[in-house]
Amino acid sequence: MSAAITCLIVEDEPLAMQLMEDYIRKLPILHLKGKCYDALEAMEWLKHQKADVIFLDINMPALSGLEMAALIPKDQRIIFTTAYAEHALDSFSFHVIDYLLKPVSFKRFLQAIQKLQLQIQPVEPIELTAKEPELLFIKSGRTVINIRFTDILYIEAHKEYLQIHTKDQKHLVYKRMKDMAASLPASFIRIHNSYIINLQYLQKTNVQSVQISDKELPVSSSYKEVLQTKLKEYLL
């Protein structure tokens, strides 16, 4: 089996950074080696380390992605990301694998990775299906119990505790929301500082809120873009 393709993300928007990071972690063929929040930080990073591919945002302060691309080695593989389609022609004067228009869907991301692997690992086909766990193990008192991810409706934060709402029960666990989010499969998405939902049980949404079973939950402004991008993967 070939070594994983190493990646560097250069992105000044935290939510876009998180989305790209989540996509990379879903694929065993990829390894996130670094992330930088502006081009100047990335230039410094590249003085000491290397990555097989850079996911490079174009619109950044101080130094744009296009300006950075002109300053790094010509053979550096780049996948550009931006919200503005007019930059596409300019970007292809570099060693560009693909150009992703925000918000980036997971399907479109996979297409870019397929192009990338054809250049780096032309012999072996990419394995696009990431294996996901089926069970969540939690401690309840002195007992460890398991819950099927498919039975979880949503997860709600209560200060330093989380309440896991399933079809039949509620379980209170001592865990941070951030740590819980990292252990969940792709069908789960955070919509608020206090809520993570299982998209399998999403009945309807108006972007301001979602309905899970008979419960209406708020969507905070900082998570709207992530939710909209995720939903595009399922729209017909």
Question: Can you walk through the features of this model?
Answer:
With 236 residues, the chain is α/β, with parallel strands linked by helices. It has 2 domains: 5-120, 3-Layer(aba) Sandwich (Rossmann fold); 135-232, OB fold (Dihydrolipoamide Acetyltransferase, E2P). The protein is 26% helix and 34% strand. It has 7 helices and 15 strands. It has helices at residues 14-26, 39-48, 65-69, 88-91, 106-120, 177-182, 224-232, and strands at residues 5-10, 30-36, 53-57, 77-82, 96-101, 135-140, 143-148, 152-158, 161-166, 170-174, 188-192, 195-198, 202-205, 209-212, 215-218. The strands form 4 sheets. A 5-stranded parallel sheet has the order 2-1-3-4-5. Strands 10-9-8-12-11 form a 5-stranded antiparallel sheet. A hairpin with a 2-residue loop joins strand 8 (152-158) and strand 9. The longest helix has 15 residues, at 106-120. The radius of gyration is 20 Å and the shape is elongated. The mean pLDDT is 84.
Summed up:
The chain is of the alpha/beta class.
Task: Produce the secondary structure layout.
Layout: E1 5-10, H1 14-26, E2 30-36, H2 39-48, E3 53-57, H3 65-69, E4 77-82, H4 88-91, E5 96-101, H5 106-120, E6 135-140, E7 143-148, E8 152-158, E9 161-166, E10 170-174, H6 177-182, E11 188-192, E12 195-198, E13 202-205, E14 209-212, E15 215-218, H7 224-232
Parallel strand pairs: 1-2, 1-3, 3-4, 4-5
Antiparallel strand pairs: 6-7, 8-9, 8-12, 9-10, 11-12, 13-14, 14-15
Provide key terms for this protein.
alpha/beta, elongated, Rossmann fold, 5-stranded parallel β-sheet, 5-stranded antiparallel β-sheet, 2 domains, 236 residues
